[in-house]
Design goal:
The complex is a heterodimer of chains A (about 775) and B (about 190).
Chain A lengths: L2 H10 L2 E2 L5 H9 L7 H4 L1 H14 L3 E3 L7 H6 L6 H15 L5 E6 L14 H17 L4 E7 L2 H14 L5 E5 L13 H8 L6 E5 L4 H14 L4 E4 L5 E4 L2 E4 L3 H14 L1 E4 L7 H11 L14 E3 L4 E3 L4 E8 L4 H8 L4 H13 L3 E5 L8 H13 L5 E3 L4 H10 L5 E5 L3 H14 L2 E5 L9 H17 L7 E4 L11 H13 L3 E5 L10 H15 L3 E4 L4 H13 L17 H8 L2 H12 L4 H21 L5 H21 L9 E6 L7 H12 L3 E4 L6 H11 L3 E5 L7 H12 L6 E4 L5 H7 L2 E2 L3 H11 L5
Parallel strand pairs in A: 1-10, 2-3, 3-4, 4-5, 5-6, 6-7, 7-10, 13-14, 13-20, 14-15, 15-16, 16-17, 17-18, 18-19, 19-20, 21-22, 21-23, 23-24, 24-25
Antiparallel strand pairs in A: 8-9, 11-12
Chain B lengths: L3 E3 L10 H7 L11 H17 L3 E8 L17 E8 L2 H12 L3 H30 L17 H9 L6 E2 L5 E2 L3 E8 L5
Antiparallel strand pairs in B: 1-2, 2-3, 3-6, 4-5
Helix pairs in contact in B: 1-4, 2-4, 3-4
The chains are: A alpha/beta (about 775), B alpha+beta (about 190).
Chain lengths: ~775, ~190
């Protein structure tokens, strides 16, 4: 099926997608195996389940390939079966339809976090998805779905990979969010929506993590911000243990009642995730019925975002100009030596001064390699900075920056030279984002008339490429007043752009180049530009007069700059702030200062460990996000090590923790985060890795004598292993506390298993602190 | 002639959300409602679905089996007729009363609206079920409309269908409250 055919179909009626596979196979007694392997070993069982979904009335069935990518199969030593498992899945799904159903190839996450949060590179992820998508496409799927993604960057890698092998096949892109509307990596629904609006996906959706009720407000958020058709697949509640079986408590009727709300909110595709089965789908299809989708009211405001921070471009966009290595030799040298401390500091200062976006100009690009650009973008991503304006000229470097960038950036910039403009437009079509278009071709035009003629040409080209003009900021050019250029030509061009309803942006400081008392000139000119209708400026946010004039001018127009989202958490504690910002050197200096008055033990336990506790609280209250938490932990760790080295005798440890992902489970993202947080809080962590049998845990506990065991189980098919480990420990006479977490764990299960439930890394830390209140 | 009892699945008693909320006083133009309101309404919806005990009592017979005063004029030349009584049972009434006593009038109000729409959803389902069996027929008709007095409900419930589970007041009003009686005439049914 072609993309336009699918989009037409979506306009005609609400489609139903099938229900769960993993949990359904588990109910049917196939829980111990990797369910994708059933495509080869028990094809009839897969066929039977899919036939039941068809009989329930679904329009789309998915291939049983959620975990059939090379990364996940590799964890089971099945990497050589990627082709066979995926091909068989398509054959099976194709054989059950009545001719009315579409078969979509299912792609799930790799199971690893991408750099800089994890170890997997963008390119590795891209190749993994490309391979799986290619097999699914070659075997004849009608479309593809990418689902249960918690990392926006991984999702982007998957989308680009799919589009590489299937330019004209329908594609559904889904992420998974908590009830607070944030993904595991701190991305909000609005950030997800604003990037997906740009990318080459046909449907944008949500799945997993939430029951039908909790999914409702998150879908409402998505419906407000996403301009593409919507899909939604809630879980059937949290799993409960009855006897030896895990059951999901959401009844088919409950799912159906909420599905009707999803329809009312404008959903175009409705299905079920974990815990839903054919009966849920049958009831839902019957209750919702054959309907035309409900039109939605969509917020058309344009946003720029980083991974965790989103900023509206209205009513006025302030872009901080000070990360500009082309004008700062020292900064240029630092970048060449992979020293980004000054850049981080400048980004943070500009954020505090009121910038909404940070312009990043890496300087003379001939002196740099792609690795510099990659490291620069990843560093800023780790710091959870504001959205970036990528002031990069080389196409190859810009492509690297865009691949590494998790969010919706501003591209600075394109000229109206046709092939240059087309290349830049293609980049924002492929990677998302907004673009600055300069009112120039080869030469810099001096008069407003020339600039307007060039801009009119640009508008035609942009419209011809199908890019919304609201995604473009036109730069009317500001030339140095000191060199005799007339600033009124710029004002006339801004006026023209305002009359045409187009966005304008200027590089303010160019005007005063070479002049004394630049701030006065800049401020005065900005005031004039604002009254002519200027919409954005790249400026020096440390110029107090300029910033005040801007606020004053906006106020006179009845406008004010507003925050959409609270930015990274602030604390009164300077140690907390240094940790959140990853300022290792500054933290080290502060610690050295403290060591003049306090013992290393006191600094370690009363200052650093306490700051980490406060960071945990900020995370728990949603004021900072996972990247901050990881960054803080990584920043604290070497300082702890340093302080330990100063304490004579045995190193300070608050306790020894043994961690493992249970047997049959290869998901270790959560466990690795817990390990990082615990280490940074002064605990000694022994990590046994993933897919660890109960017997190994027992053996290691006997050998290493930890104070506490932490287990991770992500899948409903493996959560029972937690109980097995606990029982094995007790049989061996080992009665130490056991913590368990992961997507499939919950409080009730933990109580039944006789273990302690940790919902996230911070809760795990709190529990460890509670159990192991001892000091070296 | 013997009455039959049909026990529907609960899925057949699911009222349209939009209709249910409209009946509860939320104009269609205001829908979908705010998410928090929807959640409350859904809780009531699912609670109601849990407590109802739906049943349909029905009897199909040649037209001359029925007294003329039960039949609207348009039914007189038909071959056969089905009379049925649909109810959601007393448990829903009890729950509404209980909530009212606890001053949870919002939930009680929503439940009442839900019940009215649910019994209508049930009637629509049973109507389709009958038509599959009997072929072409008249529109569904209920006493209280046209020339048929609502007090005929007593005759339908107690004499024709002989239902112990449903009470009928002198006024023709039935208990449980979410109970209706309906008639459908069949064009081709043989005597």
């Amino acid at each position: 099926m072609r993309r336009n055919e699918f989009r037409n179909l979506l306009e005609q009626k609400v489609l139903f997608l099938d229900g769960a596979y993993g949990t359904e196979f588990m109910k049917r007694g196939f829980g111990e195996k990797l369910v994708e392997l059933l495509n080869l070993t028990a094809a009839d069982e897969v066929r039977k389940l899919q036939k039941e979904y068809v009989e329930a009335g679904v329009d789309i069935i998915l291939t049983n390939t959620f975990s059939a990518n090379r990364a996940k199969l590799g964890a089971y030593h099945l990497e050589n079966e990627v082709e066979k498992i995926n091909a068989a899945a398509v054959r099976i799904a194709r054989s059950v339809g009545t001719g009315r159903q579409l078969v979509f190839g299912d792609l799930g996450p790799t199971g690893s976090l991408l750099e800089p949060l994890g170890q997997l590179s963008f390119h590795q992820a891209y190749e993994i998805f490309k391979e799986q998508a290619r097999i699914l496409v070659e075997n004849g799927v009608d479309g593809l779905i990418i689902e249960t993604m918690s990392d926006l960057k991984e999702l982007k890698a998957a989308i680009l990979a799919v589009r590489q092998v299937a330019e004209d096949l329908p594609l559904i892109a889904q992420m998974t969010f908590g009830a607070d509307g944030l993904s595991l990596t701190g991305t909000s629904v609005e950030i997800f929506a604003s990037l997906m609006n740009d990318l080459e996906v046909d449907v944008v959706g949500l799945n997993c993590s939430l029951d039908p009720e909790k999914m409702l407000p998150v879908l409402a958020q998505l419906a407000r911000h996403c301009s593409k058709p919507l899909s939604v697949e809630p879980n059937a509640g949290q799993p409960k243990l009855s006897g030896n079986k895990l059951t999901y408590l959401t009844s088919p009727e409950e799912l159906a009642v909420y599905a009707k709300d999803y329809y009312e909110l404008g959903a175009n595709i409705i299905g079920g995730c974990c815990g839903t089965g054919p009966e849920h789908l049958r009831t839902m299809v019957k209750f919702v019925g054959q309907k035309k989708p409900v039109p939605r009211k969509i917020n058309r405001t344009q946003y720029l975002s980083s991974r965790t921070i989103i900023k509206p471009v209205e009513p006025f966009l302030v872009v901080g100009e000070r990360i500009n290595a082309s004008a700062k030799k020292k900064l240029q040298a630092q970048i060449q030596h992979h020293d980004f401390s000054e850049i981080i500091s400048l980004a943070q200062k500009q954020q505090e001064e009121g910038a909404a976006v940070i312009d990043v100009n890496p300087g003379i690009e001939k002196l740099l390699t792609a690795e510099h650009i990659k490291a620069l973008i990843q560093t800023l991503d780790r710091q959870s900075t504001l959205p970036l304006s990528l002031d990069i000229q080389e196409d190859d470097f810009l492509k690297v920056a865009l691949e590494e960038y998790a969010g919706r950036p501003l591209l600075n910039s394109a000229t109206v030279r046709e092939e240059h403009l087309l290349r830049r437009l293609n980049l924002i079509k492929q990677h998302g984002g907004l673009l600055i278009v300069l009112a120039m071709e080869e030469e810099v035009p001096t008069t407003a008339e020339e600039r307007i003629r060039i801009l009119e040409k640009a508008v035609d080209t942009i419209a011809g490429q199908g890019v919304e003009l609201s995604r473009i900021f036109f730069d009317p050019l500001v030339l140095p007043y000191g060199a005799g250029h007339d600033f009124r030509e710029t004002l006339k061009t801004i006026n023209f752009l305002r009359e045409k309803g187009l966005n304008s942006i200027i590089g303010l400081s160019n005007l005063s180049y070479g002049l004394p008392e630049r701030e006065k000139i800049n401020a005065a000119f900005l005031g004039l530009c604002l009254s002519a209708g200027l919409k954005a400026a790249i400026l020096n946010t440390s110029e107090v007069t300029t910033m005040n004039v801007m606020e004053g001018s906006l106020a006179l127009q009845g406008l004010e700059l507003k925050e959409l989202k609270k930015t990274s958490g602030r604390s009164e504690d300077p140690v907390v702030n240094l940790l959140i910002r990853g300022q290792k050197e500054e933290l080290k200096a502060l610690v050295e200062e403290k060591l003049k008055e306090l013992t290393p033990l006191s600094v370690s336990q009363e200052i650093l460990a306490r700051a980490m506790e406060k960071i945990g609280q900020l995370y728990a209250s949603g004021e900072i996000f996972l990247p901050h938490l990881i960054l803080s932990a990584e920043t604290a760790q070497p300082i702890f090590d340093y302080l330990n080295s100063l304490i004579p005798g045995k190193a300070v440890s608050r306790g020894r923790i043994l961690l493992a992902t249970v047997e049959g489970d290869i998901h270790d993202i959560g466990k690795n985060i817990v390990a990082t947080i615990l280490r940074s809080s002064g605990f000694e962590v022994i990590d046994l890795g993933k897919n660890v049998p109960a017997e190994t845990v027992v053996k290691e506990v006997q050998k290493l004598k930890p104070d506490l065991v932490g287990l991770s189980a992500m899948m409903t098919t493996t959560v029972g292993q937690v109980k097995k480990v606990k029982e094995a420990l007790e049989e061996a006479g080992l009665f130490l506390p056991v913590l368990a977490g992961g997507a499939s764990m919950n409080q009730e299960l933990a109580e039944i298993f006789g273990v302690h439930y940790a919902r996230n890394a911070v809760e795990a830390l709190n529990l460890c602190q509670r159990f192991l209140q001892k000091e070296a | 002639m013997l009455k039959e009892i049909y026990f529907p699945e609960k899925v057949h008693c699911l009222p349209e959300k939009r209709n249910f909320l409209s009946r509860a006083g939320l104009p269609s133009a205001q829908q979908p409602a705010e998410v928090d309101f929807l959640k409350k309404a859904n809780q009531v919806y699912l609670l109601a679905l849990e407590v109802i005990k739906p049943a349909v009592f029905h009897l199909t017979a040649p037209v001359d089996y029925f007294p003329p005063e039960l039949l609207p004029e348009s039914f007189l030349n038909l071959q056969a007729l089905t009379v049925f009584a649909s109810t959601l049972g007393y448990s829903l009434d009890d729950l509404i009363n209980e909530l009212n006593q606890k001053k949870q009038s919002f939930e009680a109000w929503l439940l009442d609206a839900w019940g009215s729409e649910s019994v209508e959803a049930l009637n629509r389902h049973f109507d389709r079920w009958l038509r599959k069996k009997h072929g072409a027929g008249t529109r569904r008709f209920s006493p209280g409309y046209g020339r048929v007095d609502i007090r005929m409900n007593r005759f339908i419930i107690k004499e024709l269908l002989n239902i112990e589970e449903i009470d009928v007041l002198e006024s023709g009003v039935m208990l449980p409250r979410k109970t209706t009686t309906c008639l459908i005439g069949w064009y081709h049914e043989k005597k």
